[in-house]
Write a structure and sequence with these properties.
With about 525 residues, the protein is α+β, with helices and mostly antiparallel strands. It has three domains: about 170 residues, Lysozyme (Orthogonal Bundle); about 170 residues, Lysozyme-like; about 140 residues, Galactose-binding domain-like (Jelly Rolls), CATH 2.60.120. It is built from twelve helices and 27 strands. It has a six-stranded mixed sheet, with helices on both faces. The longest helix is centred in the N-terminal third of the chain and has 19 residues.
Length: about 525
Amino acid sequence: MARLSLRPLTVLPLIAALLCGCTNSGLSSEVNTDSPIGIFDRAEEETGVPALLLMAISQAETRMQMVEGHEEFPGQVTGHGIMGLRGRNIQEGATLAGFHTQAAKEDRVANVLATAYLMAQWAEEEGINTNSLGAWANVVARYSGISDPEAAAEYVHHEVYQILNQGFEVEGLRVMPGKVVHPDFPIPSIDLTRSGSTTVCSPSPNYNSRGGADVDFLIIHTCEGSYSGCWSWLTKPSTGVSSHYVVNDKGTEVRALVDESDRAWHISAQYDCGNNDGVACFRDGTSMNTISVGIEHAGYGSQSSWDPGLISRSAKLACEITDRQGIPRDSYHIIGHGQLQPWNRSDPGAHWPWADYLNQIQVACGDLSSGGTTGGTTGGTTGGPPSAPGVPLVIDSNNGANDTSKGYIDVSSSWWSSANISGYYNTGYFVAATDAVADPANFWFYSDTAQCFRVEAWWSSAWDRPAAITFLGWDPSDVEVGRQVVNQRGDGSQWNHLGDWEFEPGWNRVLLSRWAAAGSYVVADAVRGTPGACNP
């Protein structure tokens, strides 16, 4: 059987994590915990569980992010760490690996090793051929904790082994696709070719009638687990919970569970306008399930970032729902679960990109052009507040941290969010592979008058960054007003002066290009503009 190849890029900061500590006697216990990648090689050395398989499970469970699971569905066991390790598995794996249970939850190294030792024990119990990636399928299904055979098959085939077959890229590491990775596991009966428009129907019995009530709200949830684990739990009669939809971790698939005309059981709260800025107080005391549609999203509320594909697909789905139901497309009617049930829920979490999400919904529905911004309210805006002289405006890579009436970031799906290299501004950054393509990251900002801005940029430096990459200033007429070539291999974790550029009234932008020789990773983190602070 053809094996996947783990191919380090020509220059990458994580190569030390992959190679450091290697001696004739094996891999040292010293691991670069700034990056998860080296830990997987260590786990394979110690246990024989393929590093690639562990990485694919981590991608499917948590997108290789450290998470702290919180209850979303009563009775469901929550996941922890980079592997989404759950329940009794945490204690058993920790014991096998020689760690305390709490360490297996909270420490990246302990979490991966506890998983690997546990899976190695299961493989020994089943007597599998550990040299065959496909033979590990039963162990993968067992690790998922999914009891429904159809859902377990979906998890094995369309989550973990699909990742192995298609390959994946983590900043600084490219895992090449495998040519033949067939899991030794029953094929799911719904075996569709997955695409960005795929919707699969998996009816849930957990619903009842709305009793003729109108739908006023769209509720945003996170599953606190994997995609298949989520929709399978919501379709079990015994759980007593459901949702109308579930979006997978990359936005390539949506599960439809309950018809919008029916009342899904996705939020255990009555409406209280005190949790929603005094909006629609006439609904106070009404069950939220009666007057809302719910969308669950694969992943965890404690994630530091979300795949742009998930946000984009969810925004398109939200547009369709709000069109059908007549729900206003604003932050008072498209709301997080935790806002309306704050005593025991916090999803979709602090890093859900609300401003960007609402913008994308309105763009999808044609309420707003792709160059506009909503500011989190109904309708677009053609201008923002006046630019106060000497007051810096920071445009972060996390639109949830931006006042989008003043500035926001816009990137294509070729850019992905990361927090892999420390020294970033706020919660993380966007990153993209360099290439000869016109696909910049756009930092948009509004100026009420023609004036000069002192423009600065922030990035975290590493030696897989481009040595020469260009920032450009463009005015509302797409006329270039300045440019600066920077070296992102250095000058990290600080504000770097790009220039003093004259901008016109309206929506201007600072572009960060991807156009450079292939083999590096360009970082769009934050841009700061200070009006009236230019050098004389």
